[in-house]
Fold each of these.
Amino acid sequence: MSLVGEITGTLRPAPGDRHGPLAPLLLMLTVVTGLVDAVSYLELGHVFVANMTGNVVFLAFAIAGAKGLSIGASLTALACFLAGGLAGGRLGVRTGAHRGRLLRASVGAEALLVAAALVVAGVAGEPVAAGAQYTLIPLLAIAMGVQNASARHLAVPDLTTTVLTLTLTGVAADSRAAGGGGARLGRRGLAVAAMFLGALAGALLVLEVSLAAPLAVAVAVLALATLASQALSRSQAPWTAADGAR
């Protein structure tokens, strides 16, 4: 398939696509990842709430005494992300047989958590006090854990919503130059672009407007995804069945 065909097929899946309309919705969640990680890194003590690889490294740096990093913030983010992953895993077990219902449940929960973070950010003001910081990090990290676990259950190739390392590896390792069958650059490129644009927008809003601004955008994106997933939860199309049930 051509590059343009891959991009078009990801943004507007054809009727009968085995993943239905999940791909564009997961791209929306990837944008949310960029937005919230911009907030957490720039305003909450140089910590990620979605990129746990970075947090493990930051934790090691903080233990070693690197300035500007916090052992407590990194540990909080890691623990709360795991809690969110646990919650997302339970949602996957309960609703994963119907992927539309799983998406509705997980995105709805995520939207509520990010909306709560928006309220806290609006009240806290700037600079963010430690108490508000340790309220925002758990809310956002739990939301990202739910999102990541649910994306794992949905199992749409190259759209994990929070991790790009394997996506970028696939671009190179699966390319024809490496002897592979094709890099699927269209879909993988869209995933990278969604994360980049979310992070860029989040950083600009944090630096030029306020801490709450990117969270408001994230809530708006999640609200749209929730409305879409509500409609999809009623579908009985073949794509709604988990792989094991097909």
Amino acid sequence: MVTTSISKVRSRLRLAAQRLFDDSSGIAATEFAVIVPIMLVMFFGTVEFSSGVAVNRKVTLVARTLSDLTSQSPPANANQIYATVTDAYLQNVFTASVAIVQPYSAAPTQATLSEIYIDSNLKATIQWSMAATIASGATQATLTTSAHNPGDVITTLPPQLLVKKTYLIFSEVRYLYTPTVGYVMGKGGVTLSDVSYTRPRQVACVVYNNVPAITCPTP
């Protein structure tokens, strides 16, 4: 009698365990809870990475545009071998960054324009340099002091650009890209940067505030 009761209990326990094992009513919810965080990471990561790539491309375009516009500065007359740029001219050149960076904010942009002279010993030195920043919501760049000083030696020029007694317009651009969400890349952002070198197009050199000397190119 006791043995029969124990067998019935065991049978019922096995049946209950089998029913519990076969019950799949909560599987969908469990899978959803596990998969959603992974999907969110992938989604926001894709969005942030794609925006970062787009901004990085714009940083490259800004660097090329700054050096290109400055290198196209024309001489005052056909007999001059130099072109002269003023603060107003350079400010307009830097301001071009605002349009290029759109639809992203141009405020994180920090740009520098310099002219480099390569002497007969292939020594590259800064002739003049000017920097600019763009305030949040501003439509025009603000000129600032450059980190480069006249006479600073540049050792990072590509070898193919080292041509004796020539000038180069050198642009540098930095942009702090801060993702909107900051879920994957971090709220601190990533600093994007690029440089560009362009030779003066219509003249031998570009003069800023009488630097270099009007008699460029320097022997």
Amino acid sequence: MTRRLRYLIALAIAAVVMTTATSPTEGFALLSSKWPNGPVVMHLRMGGGSGTLIDGSTSWNQVVTNGLAAWNAHIQLVSFSAVNDSTAANGDGNGLNTVFFSDTVYGDAFGESTLAVATSWSFAGGRKAESDVIFNRAKPFNSYRGNLRSGATDILRVAIHEFGHTLGLDHPDEEGQNVDAIMNSHVSNRDSLAADDINGARSLYGSGITSNVTFPPRNETADFVNRLGALYRDELRSGGFATFVDAEGAGVWVPEYARFRVGQCSHEVASQRVFQTITDGIASGVCALTPAGAIPFPPRNEGLQFFVSLNGLYRDTLRRGQITSFVDEEGLVVWILEYLRYRLNRCSHEVAVQKVFMQIRGQGIQPTC
């Protein structure tokens, strides 16, 4: 086996602000090895309790576990698994992945500005065998979000960076690239994964599975939503309902949520992946192939929970203005999902529209096609 070390360097805060202000170009950088598919077990040996940290965390293990979870949310073929307060021995090249504080890197001195080191042991052919993450005990670690603070090094962003090396990502800024990424070689005001980091991890371990179910084109779903609004206005004499999600947004993102749910994703994962697409432009595959037989759809209460959260995202993150809709939130979600259920069960656009409208008019649930 061969070993490689990767370091994260601390810079003065003023210098970091300048480096994070540049515009992104090109993309991520990769090391020469990656893990085989499956779990990557990390043995956390961060020592005793740390007291209450700035962000309210009560132990180093808690924070470091959050760093592992940050990557797990975006990759499919491998996943980190944490063993808290592990009794496994630290050892260079012993086949175990350990995470711990130390005064040295297995006997070698840390660099003066080095915050942490990730080792990388791999077999010939690029199959990763071991990766230890060693935090420099001499540095003033704490845990907080936002811009860097003088005299307190945020261990979470350092941990996320080092676990990126564990996965097989390198420093893009040392490869001639100018990108916003937590994987750059210097700690910065970025305290979470950037799109470039996620794209790099997904290039190694996938972003999900290509769905085996074809949803209707967006223009047809948009036509249904517009006709639904007209039905509520002209036949049901509906009054206006305040919302922040316009008809186009509802016609795009409710079907995306349904696509993930039909693709065997949980409510939480489906919501997270839709919101990530909206905020970061990062598309994901589904969680598993849809089984043969009746196509499963999410229950109405979970669809409504999604739309309420979507409305909050439009209001608080996208800063959209309030608008008026003739269709209330529950009606919008229920009937879009019903329209999609008919479409995925071989009904044409027009037939699906008419079957939904028959339900709304009190004629009962219609058979699929």
